[in-house]
Amino acid sequence: MPLILPGNVGSATASTGFNVDNSLRFNNGFDGNADDAYMHRTPSSAGNRRTFTLSAWIKRGAYFNDEHPILAADTTSAIRFSSEGGSNSKINIYYYSGGWVYRVHTNAEYRDPSAWMHLVVAFDTTQATASNRIKIYVNGTQVTSMGNSDYPSENYDTAFNNNVLHTIGRNGTAGDYYEGYLSEVVMIDGQALTPTSFGEFDEDSGIWKPKDVSDLTFGTNGFYLDFEDSSNLGNDASGGTDFTEVNLAATDQSTDTCTNNFATWNSLQPTNAAMSEGNLVGASSASSGHYSGISSIGVSSGKWYFECKQTQESTANEGMIGVIIFYNTITALLNPVGRGGGWGMQDGNRGFSTDSGGSGSTTDNFHAGWTDDDIIGIALDIDNSRVYYSKNGQWNNSGSWNAANPTTSQTLQNALGDGTYFFMAGDASGSNNCTWSANFGSPAHAISSGNTDGNGYGNFEYAVPSGYFSLNTKNLAKYG
Q1: Which residues lie across from 411 on neighbouring strands?
Q2: Which of 192, 221, 254 is the C-terminal boundary of a domain?
Q3: pTM of the full predicted structure?
Q4: Distance between CA atoms of 321 and 310, rounded to whole angstroms?
Q5: ∠ CA(423), CA(427), CA(433), 5° rounding?
Q6: Is the domain of 455 the same as that of 389?
């Protein structure tokens, strides 16, 4: 099955023709620091309950509960990622009302938090063949390997497009919520369409990419959510009734989209950190191996800029931030920066610099420390084997934050010759925790100024150094 390449790197090299400007980040309040986010509306009348199509571009976040609904109708029906079949990352479609009316799920699991995927679900219960009544497509290709195959009966009227509560990111009125990003969410009422109505394979790369859907016929209860209006995120761009947002704000509008994929923290790496806000906020714990997060995209060449806000530090002088190198194993992940193939800083003035074998040095008074809500910037220059640090826009200069441009650096060492570097943040002790909010260019926290890189990408609090770029796939295609 043709897939979007890991991290969407392939799609960045393709000529997209159509660019998606925005997505919407949904946060699941399991982290205890934020409220559950979703949107809802109730159609005034019923549409076609037998024949319809849902299309959505999806980038998953962390998942800690069983159900992650994309679209639900009433309290009975949903299109979701769920634990059906023993995993909470299979696509599951169901109607349950005192018993299973219908339910189907994929055998394949979809759990990659570093890449966008395209999901199309086409209903047509008028079909005589049961398996034709619900068709699932991922990245332009129909999924035919299915688990449970309890399809709806012929001519069955589903809850979708009925004049009942419809929710996006929540399972009706139940306590199950989606975590991650959604973009280009479309409902077509009255037609069972194929993916080619919403996307196409690039003729040069073969990568599946989105295309303009504004000319489609949406039908009675169809809708098109493009998330372009930060003051009305539930706006139906097709002209229908808007969705009402719950616990969604302008800061949840993101430029991380299916045509330009930004790095986040990687919730699949063995950090055991609690992830939230679309994998941009990571909270380490005493048992987490010290990591709040490790970037989902790594780089082996070029110059890259990254900001990160420490929002909570349980023990003073234990926060850590820097760069780590991957080899052919991930054993270095079990140690903090400075303990094996890493370079960085520890709050309390200390700098770490270690080679691939774990030997190296610590430097006291390397910097002047930081406190909660300070923003640490990292300028990673792989081409010249240097890494520089800033605090609140001022660069480290021999232990003081007083330089306008990158000045004092650490020297990267790569004994194996082909390392890939990842940004990271966490804490220096297994007995405390630290929370970091990452900004790879599309942040979860509010930005008061707004600075882009030289290509016009990213939204940073402080000026991006000349020649450095935000970590996204369009920049990777040119500089990575």
Answers
A1: 386
A2: 254
A3: 0.92
A4: 9
A5: 125
A6: yes
Domain that holds residue 354: 274-479
Identify which of 122, 266, 138 has the alpha carbon closest to the alpha carbon of residue 191: 122
One domain, residues 163 and 282: no
Question: The tokens of 301 are what?
Answer: 């060449």
pLDDT tens digits for 117-174?
A: 999 999 999 999 999 999 999 999 999 999 878 999 999 999 999 999 999 999 887 7
91: CB partners within 8 A, 6+ apart: 79, 80, 81, 105, 106, 108, 110, 119, 136, 138, 143
The predicted-structure confidence for 199-227, as pLDDT tens digits, reads as follows 999 988 899 999 999 999 999 999 999 99
